[in-house]
Every structure is written in C-alpha cells, then in structure tokens.
Amino acid sequence: MVVLTKNLTKLIGSYYDKNYDSLGKKQFHFSSRHYLWFNDKKNLARLKRLKSSYIGNNQKEVEAIILNILNKNYRLGKKIKARKLRKKVLLKYPLLIKYERILFKILFTKHLYKYDISPIALKHLDLNNLIKYRDALYKNKKDLATLSTLGLNFIYNLRFFLNLIHKDNLNKLDPAYLFEVAKIEYNKDASLTNRVNLQLYYYTHCIINESEFYFKKIKDRDGVYLKMLKTAERIIFTNYLKTRLDNKVEFLVCCKLLNYKTKLFDLIYSECETSLSNSDNYLINKRSSLNDLKNSEHRNILFLMAFSK
C-alpha cells in the first residue's frame, strides 16, 4: 500500500491558500467545495465576502444577476468534453446553459447563505419551459448521454428547485433510469463509445448531484449509485492511460461519498505525485497547455478532497 506523502496535500493546500487572490472567478468554486467538504471557518469567511458578487445582498441585486445570466451569450469553453457533440445537442435546448447556471445559484445560495432565492428566480424563469427541457432530455437518451454533466446538473438542480417551490409532485427523478441510459447509450452509439471521460463525468455527476454538491449524505449507498461507481471504476481500470487525472480524483471523491474502498486509490495517488508542476506546488495536466493556477483549480480541489483526512 502506498504511504501518502505527508506534505503533498499540505503543499498543494498551502499553495492555493497563499495564492487565493489569483484564482479570480474560481474563488467561489474552491471555497464552496473546501468549506462543504472540510467545514472550515476560513473558507466560510471567504464565501461571505463573495456573496455580493455571487448572488447579491437583496432582491434587486439578485434579480440583476439572474437577468444578466439570461441576457448573456454563453459559449462552450475549450475545456468542455466532447465539445462539438454537445454543441449540436444544445441547439435543441438553447437556454440550457443559462438555466443550469441559475439553478446552481439557487442550490448554493440556499445551502451556503441560507437564502432561498427561488421565488425571485421564478419571476424570471419559464417553469413550463424548464419542465419541457427536463422531459425532453429524459426522453432523448442520446442527448442526455451526450450532454453528460450539463444535462445531469440541470435535471438534479431542477429537482431541488421544484422542491423549494413545492412542485415536487412532478415526475420524480429515477437514478436507476439514468443508469440504464448510460449503459445503453455509451455501449451502442459509435460517437459516444470511446468517450471515456464523458462517461465518467456522467456517473460521478449523478453521485455528486445526489449529494447536492457535498451538502448532504447519500442515503442509498448500497444501491444504484454504488453500481454507477463500480462501473466508473471498471472504466478507469480498463482505460487508465486515456483517463484524465481530473476524472480520477473526482472518482475518488465519489468513493468517499459512498464509503467505497477502491483498489485504484494507490495508483491514482502515485500519478498525482508525478503530476506536480515543476515550478509550483499544484497538480497539472501533462496533456494540456492550460496549466495555470486557475485552470488547474478543479483538479486540485478534488485532490485535496480525495486525499486529505
């Protein structure tokens, strides 16, 4: 068994802490995950300072932020997995990215700031269209498998929103169905079969979304989510060299969420040790040119969550 290098989590954690001001818009992602996972006061204080820019301090400011999202044109970034495939699907759901961002704000604002902005959001969201998108994604299995993270974040966060506005009687989300979608589409569709990282994000984001992004424990630890996790484990084992480090450490975070001990733990840790930047104390993606501090934040916060006690 690999003995964890004492200083690796400490080095990376300290480096991001010291260079926190350089994270820019990634500050909220880092602090929210760090606080929800470790329950630390320092990142809670940071989140309080970020509240104004993240969601505003009153109804007028909340509305302005929501309207800004609805009026903005979003493009899929270069880092988005299966970008070309997803762009084709998103033409059917032109407001999906905007909806996903607003639903995220509803979720995190409620959990982190104890502020329910759902009545404010409802004034500017077309509930019928939200349901229409959700039902269409459910029906079109290939679209859902292709969108992966984007589609799943939307569906799960919409469930959270509907519960807040007491519309929870609308078509319950069924994780067993989502599992079947993945098993069928990723095995039969030639455009998706070899998309290893897309498949992994599908399974891990079902699990992470069920935890409401680390806010609550997953009750069904031995059921369908565990089956998803074991499927992800087999995918990584079979395609280890093709799998990105981000996917691997996110998989380990999901192992912790489900209290599952994977045989891949030591191997992934060893890869992390060799992925440390030559010049700075954080993990890089050796196959990418986007290795600055901000673009590496996702990988590094997941590493800290996966390997810190």
Q: Cα-atom Rg, whole angstroms?
A: 19 Å
Helical residues, percent? 55-70%
The computed structural class is mainly alpha
Poorly predicted parts: none
User: How many E-type strands?
Assistant: 0
**Main sheet summary:** none
The average pLDDT is 93
Explain this structure.
By secondary structure, the chain is an all-alpha fold. It has a domain at 55-173. Helices cover 65% and strands 0% of the residues. The chain has 17 helices and no strands. Helix 1 (6-18) crosses helix 17, helix 9 (141-147) crosses helix 10 (149-164) and helix 10 (149-164) packs parallel to helix 13. The longest helix has 18 residues, at 96-113. It is globular and about 50 Å long.
